[in-house]
Structures are given as C-alpha cells and as structure tokens.
User: What shape does this take?
Amino acid sequence: MFKNLILLFSFTLILVTGCKRAAPDAALQAPDAGLFSSLPSSETGIDFRNDLEYDRDFNIYRYRNFYNGSGAGIGDVNNDGLADIFFSSNMKENRLYLNRGNWKFEDVTKQAGVTGKGSWSTGVSMADINGDGWLDIYVCNSGNPRSDEKEAQSFSRANELFINNHDGTFSEKAHEFGLDDRGLTTHAAFFDYDNDGDLDAYILNNSFRPIGSFDLRKNLRYTRDSLGGHKLLRNDNGHFTDVSAKAGILGSIIAFGLGVTVGDLDQDGWQDIYVSNDFFERDYLYHNNGDGTFSEVLEKEMRHISAASMGADMADINNDAYPDIFVTDMLPEQDTRIKTVTSFDSPDRFRYTTGSGYYNQFTRNMLHLNNADGTYSEIACLGGIEATDWSWGALMMDMDNDGWRDIFVANGIAQDLTNQDYLMFASDPTIQEEIIAGGKVDFKRLIDSIPSVKVPNYAFHNNHNLTFTNKAETWGLAQPGFSNGSAYGDLDNDGDLDLVVNNVNMEASIYRNESDKLLKNNYLKFSLTGDGLNTAAFGAKIFVRAAGQTFYAEQLPMRGFQSSMDPRQNIGMGSIAKADTVLIKWLTGDKMTLLTNVPANQTLHLSQKDANMQMAAIPWLQPGRHPLFKNSTAATGITWKHRENQFYDWDRDRLLYFLYSTEGPRVATGDVNGDGREDFFICGAKDQPGAVFLQTPEGKFRPSKQPALDADAASEDVDAALFDADGDGDLDLYVASGGNETEPPSPELADRFYLNDGHGIFSAKKDAIPGQKPFATGCVRAGDADGDGDQDLFVGMRLLPGKVGLPVGGFLLINDGKGYFSMTQPDNLKNLGLITDAVWSDLDGDKDPDLVVVGEWMPIRVFINNKGQLTNMDSGLDQLSGLWKRISPGDFNGDGLTDFIVGNEGLNTRLDASQQQPLSLFFNDFDKNGTPEQILCRYNGGVLLPYVLRGELVGEIPSLKKKYLKFKRYANQSMTDIFTPEQMKDAIELKAGVLTSGVLLNLGNGKFSFTALPNEAQFAPLYGITTGDFDGDGRTDVVAGGNFLGSKPEFGYVDADYGLFLKGDGKGGFLPVRSRASGFRLDGEVRDIKTIRIGQQHSLLVARNNESPEIFSALLK
Assistant: This one.
C-alpha cells in the first residue's frame, strides 16, 4: 500500500517541480430490527457538512491529507445536563450545536464565538482545561490553503483553545495557555500524565516533509522536529510547557500521526499512550514510568502492527478489566476492492523496511488483546474485524447495552487515491505530457480522474468470545459514504449510546440508539466529579461487578479519530438488574468510592470528595491462582540455538504464500546413554547438525559430540524418533529430512538412521533402508506395526520440493528386528495430502497399534491395523479436510478410550474457510513452461476467487497480461474465468474446509466427534501439543504452543500465541488459562513440546524455530 502512495506523491513532486470465524453463539445474536435510527437535519436542525471543493492551489496534489476529514465532539458545554455537539470543518466554519432536548439542536456557533480563524480544522477535544467546571473546546488545525504550508509562523495553522465563559460564549486563548501549536496537528488528548491533579496534553502532529523525500535506509525516528513532531505538554499552573524530550516522547520528523488514545494499559495507576502513525513509520506505545517520563515499548510488547495506521481506540473487549487496543488500516473486505485499490509489500520490501527499523507492519486492522502481563496478542483476523476498507474512526462502544464493547468503524475516502488503474493512468508518460502541457499542471484533470466509491461503515457486534459480527446493515449504520471522525454519547439521556459521524461532502450523520425500546437492556451511567482542576475526573476507573462479571470503563473521552466522546460513562449490563459492587478508583488521592447493591437504569453522580474507602488492590485484576509452571531453562544450562538458514520458497515458487522450509525443529526424548536419565535429540536446520543433549545428575544438559550427525549437517532435520531398532536395549535414532530448499534427487533429502553404541554415540547406518528415495519428510513415528515385537516406522511425506501442492503419501518401514528395514507403501497410503504428523494408538482394542495421520489439504485419516495390514476406517472424519499440523493422544472425558487433540491453522489469519465454502489450492503448470504454479483461492461473495493480485499473477504467467490490461477487469474473476478449460483440465484442486484446532472424542464405535477448542486456542497454528494432568485434579489437560512467521506480507505474521494451557473438565471440554496465571509463557515460533523428567521433576521441553529450546518445570509434584 505504501508504495502506491509513494508513487502518487512522487508524481505530485514531479508535476509541481516540472511545472476469519468462528460463528457467534446463536443466543448472542443481536436483533435484526434497526438498532439505530438515522435522523435527518430537518428533524434535528444539524445541517453541518464537511464539503471539500477543488482549489488549484490547495488539493490532494498539494496537500497529502486533503481527504482525511475532520472530527466530532460531544459534551455538555452549558451544564444543562444535555450533551451538545461540536463539528470541526476542513474548508469552512466549525459548528457548535446546543442540545435543546427531544432531538432538537440549535446552531450557536457565531454567538458562542467558536467559528475559529484556523485553517483546515481537524481534531476536536472537549475538556475542562482550566478546571473551572465548564467544558472548553480545543480545535486542531492542520493546513493553510492561502500560504506556504511550510511557513513555521503561519498563524492560520495555529491550534485554537476556546475557553468557556459560562454565559454561552467562548474566548480563544490558545496562545495564553501555550497551546497554539503550529504543526500539522491531527488531534490532541488531554489527560493527567503526572497525576498532579490537572490536565496535560499530547499534541499529535503530522510531519511536514513529503513522503517521497525520505531515504528509508536512514531511520530518522530519533531526529526531533521541533515544529511538526509529536509533543507532550505539561500543565504548569495553567500554562502548557513542552516536556517532550525530557519525558521520552519521540518528536520524530518521520511521524505521521493520525490517532492517539490514552489509558492505563497495565493497571499501575499511571496513564499510558498509544499513537498510530501513517505511512512507513511504525506506531508508538508509551509506558508511563510514574516519574514524569515514558518508555517507548511497542517492539517489546507487540509482535506486529498495522502498516497505515489510522484511528485508534483503547477499551476492554473481553471484560477482564484490562484495556485492549484497536487500530484501523486500509484493507478492504470485498474482492472487487482488494483487486482494484490494494497492494501489499513484497517480501523483499518487507525485509528492507524491517531491516531499516520500521518493524513488522501489515496492511489490515489490528486488535491487540491485552494479556495483562506486558504483552499483546493481535487477533483482528480471529475477531473478523481485520478488513473494513479505508478506515478512520475506531470506536469501542457498547452499542446494544449487553455489557460487551462493540466496535464502530467509520470509513471511506472521497477519491480512491490507491486505485490501481488510476495510478497506471497517472504514471503514463503520454498522460503526464498532456497534463503538464504549456508548463502548467492541469490538476483538475488529474483529480477528476480519480475514482470515487462510497462505502458503508461497519458496526461489529461483540459475540462475547473474542469474535465480532458486522451488524451495520441490520442495525441501520451501513449508509455508504465517506466518513471520518465519529463520537458516541447519550444525546437523549435514555441510557444508551447514540452516534455522531462527520462525513466528507455530505451531511453529518446523527444516529439515535433505539436499544432502550428494542432490547430493554439495563445500564448504569456515571457522572463523575474529580478533585482540584481535574473536574471531570479524567483517568478515573469504573469497575462494576454483577452476576460474576466485571464491567470496566476508564474516563478518558479523546479517542477514535480526531474526536471526543461524551465524558459521562455508560456501562451496559444486559439483563442484570442490579450491580453487586460499583468501585470508582480515582486517578489521584488515597481513597476510592465503593457502592454495593446498586439498582440498574440510573445515573450515578459521584464526587471524589465523597470517596469512602481506602485505596487497595483491585481483586478482579489479580491472576487468581498459583502458577503451574516455571521457566527453568537457565538452570539446565542449555545454550544451543536453532539457526534457520535464509531461504525463501517464493523466490523460486513465486505464487506460494507460505514457507515450507521453516518447520523445524522437533525433539525426541529418551535415555540415550543408559544412565537412567532422560536425554533428548533436537533437530538442526539446514547446514546445522542436530544435537544430542545428555542429562547430568545435577539436572543440567550437556551437548554430546556426535561426528555422524555433524557429517549430515547439510540436511534439514524436521522430525526424529528414538527407539530400539536392533533389540540391543539402547535407543537408536531416525532423523527425517525435509524442507523445500533442494529438489530430488538431492541426497540432502534422504532420511537418516543411526545406531547407538550403547553409550549415547550414534553412527550412521547407510544400508538400513534399501531403495529409499529422497523427498521431503513430514514426520516419523515408531510402533510395532506387524506385531513381531520390534519397532517399525511410519514415515509421512510432507511434499515434493519444487512441486508444493502435489499430494504425497506415507509408507511403512518394516523392521527385521536387527535394524534393517524394508519399505512398503500400500495404495491407501498414497496421495494422502501434505503430511505433517501421525500417531500410533490401539483404537479397536485388539492390542496392536492403529495409525492416525494428519496433514495439510487432507482430512484426518484413520487406519486400522489388522495383523500388519492397514485398512481405512470409516471414522466419521472424512469431511474434516484441514491444514492440520499436529496430533496428540489423551483421554479427555475419562471413558478409558483414546481421544486426540489436533492442531490446525487456527482462525487468526486472512484464510477463510468452511465446510460449505472451503479453501482451494490449485496445482498445475498453467502456462506449460515447465514450472508448476500454486493458486490459493477462497470464497468471497459466494464465488471461489484467487487471493493473488493481478500484478503477481501476470508476473508469473505473462500471457494473461493482455487479458487483464486493467485491474478492474481482473476483479471477481474465478479460476474458470481466468483460465481456459484446456488449461484447467490437468489442475489438481486440494481443499480445506476446517481451520480450527480441536478435540477428537472417541465414541467407542469406530467413530469420532470433532469439537473446536476455545478461541484462545485459535490464535495461531498449533505445532507443539502435549497432554497430561498438569494441575493434579485427575483430569487430562493440554499444553500447546504455535505461531508462524513464514507468510508473505499480504498475510502477515500469525504470532498471537504466548503459550496455551487448557484445563480439562473431564468431559472433553477445556478452559483456557492465560500465561500470566499458568506460568507457561512462550515467545517465538514453537515447533514441538515434549514432556521430560529432569531429576525427580516433571518438565516440558519446548522447541522453537530459530531460537533456543526452553524448559518449564511443572510445579505440581
């Protein structure tokens, strides 16, 4: 996306100088009746429009933020108990409307004196800045159409502060207060960052420099821009002093600030800051140190962020009383828009920008779930809220008063600046010559040629399980337009939140919330009065406990995009008629306010001076249990690190979206040297030998020298098995070779077998497997397949390198008891899919091991062992075709039968599938050039469409370029539209309709039932799974981990997992326990988890890609 904007604004410079889900519970579905009514100006008297008109001297080619829109503010400016509305305007006058009751508003702008003299007003903030008990209005200004925008002293660009005179008028006093900032200001947040009882300010500015003028190799994040940089202003007795540098705030010249939101993210009593930046600079997350300074901790606490961050909000979406963060971006939902206005960074560019310090940025909305331990899990795709088009306003608000925060997104751009066909038009040399003919740029022609498409806003209903459903259409909020700033508040004092939206080139939208009539859900409203100069108690926290639930809100009205909310907090309670406890934790002072048995449906007027309880720890914020695990890696002495080689599959196979060369390491455990202690083997990466670690009497692990393993370092190890192959009482080693780097017949792909000398030293036995053919292995599992008392092997093929997508199978290595194997592959083990894992387990009670095989693009396959012959079993799982990663056995319902946990892709990606509308992967050499293509498809709008964008497809298959000269022509084209019947006839189509990780419960009749695990288990692909009773309650639990970073930027990282403990209920169900509570906290890409006994301590061994392994001690004896 960024490169398109670079192209646009670079062209500007030339001209100027040249001249995803889980389905919601049915019981939680909001009613289809219109929850909001759009009120016309004829009824409300609000006729404000933010009209943008063409001006040769001031337009999108002169000013990059021309279409960013303006904001809205809600607050009671005359203290009559009714919330009033203020609109900022880009090119015309700002407007103030007094609420006269009964949905009648009066325009009092001129008599109030708040028209403003500023140029290009953007954000609005309503706060009692001088502490006199009356709301003031702060207006941000961000341009000057009639003068040089680089002129530092341009008065018309100075921000304005309208101080309330208590008589219906205001006086502009920004200069007097030190708030007349002259940057390109987007918004301002007022809050008490130093807890001294008055309001300070964060000024969010947008860099003056043209985007294309930066050399991205030189990261200028720490180069301060005294005029255009972000600023933190401290309130010193009514005058604001710039303390940015001293406080640790980045006033960067590369910061293009579009959103700022404030809240106490870690519940330490000090307010933190999240800043969203547009273009190439990353966002900022500031942790308040409580001493007047901040630490910028984004890269420490968030694993990835939005690429073109717009608006942002901070609120609690899962009712754990910790604020989460939602940030909007520009990814459309519909295929037509994706294929015509969207581009993604190439892998090369992503490596370039991350290498230059701009961090992991991806084009989509982000929902950062607060893990309450200084980390965040990004789950927008799981939530189904990642794609809302060109989005601005981001508001987390309870729209139906059910007690759960919903999400409103205001979006749209008056002219589609990133339209691909327009960019081709504007960059055409012939067109450029025509436009600059005569030495004068025809801006009007350029601008009139930009497409304009109105898009609807989004209203996401919270399904109470970390997922959301877009209800904009049924709720009456889907009017197409170009919406920017938005604000919520109770405009009619009926206990629900109404909505105000500032639109470009159309009247502002006023939406009345009808939930009081339609749903009759209960609520509590809060009108808070703070001590001293913080009269509206900014920073106060509200905790409502009712029916075992916690409802939480924080009093900080500036949020979303350029907007300010009604400062009266409204907490929905659903059907709950009474709150057991209401607790107000004031920002300052040593007392809290405690109320009990509070009836719903009232406004509570509470003052800090009446606080009645000494400050104490909030019980609902505590972990609530003793940890079950402790990271004891340091005590074991393990320093070995898996080091992945640099190979990118898509450099060869251009249409692949995912790497198949980063799937190690896995581990195998056992007593290798016969001393009675468990040791382990861990797989190496390509050009790195696998390693054997021997346990010492002290519980440490020492590496064992293994020349035979060193000699085979060129192979990439992906799995291993320790088993006694030759009956001599020690454990031998089979190592599976995989990856996608080398193609057959490379010897590096050959699996390897090593005999143990009885002392833990392995030697290669090259002749143990006659006739072995090199391919990429996925897994190896030992079991006595033929019942002769020795260990045989099942080997599952992962793929054929260079031909990913061609189904492969598995085979058996039958052991003669002396460590020699014969290979057999019955027909039913051929062409299974892309195998990732398998397990031997006696499923039919006949005392021999049966086989269960999982893999990508295949169903779960069950094979019954009948005297050494594997036959297909009708297990009821044939329809569960998925992208399966792992399988692990356990009895989860206590019936004595073996059940299984199966790890899948999860739901937190842009992959979208169901059994009715599965994903498809087409494999074929479509252009007959000798190199096969892989085309990934999904259903969008009921039609199976490729993910690949036009540019990538025609780059790989140039013959399609003539057919798709325009991007618009390519949109909504199916595979049969793109390719001829002749081209399609040899195509292999693989399908995957299930993406959830889940539990397979053994029904005892040869059948299994599949149930998805909780959504916390769908945060990422699960590659490491082990089972056992880890909490001592007699029920089988699950420990798991995952994450995957090997995706193209179009899909981005899937890394929301920090380690998962699932507490078994003994009935086949599981309760997710957060890492903070369990003690099982992981970083990185987990590839395997095994139980291992260290001394007398049960422990977990965790293998991670490109990282060192970790050891967790189980604290239960």
Summary: The chain has 21 helices and 73 strands. The CA atoms of residues 927 and 958 lie 9 Å apart. Confidence is low (pLDDT under 50) at residues 1-20, 22-30, 145-154. The longest helix spans residues 2-18.
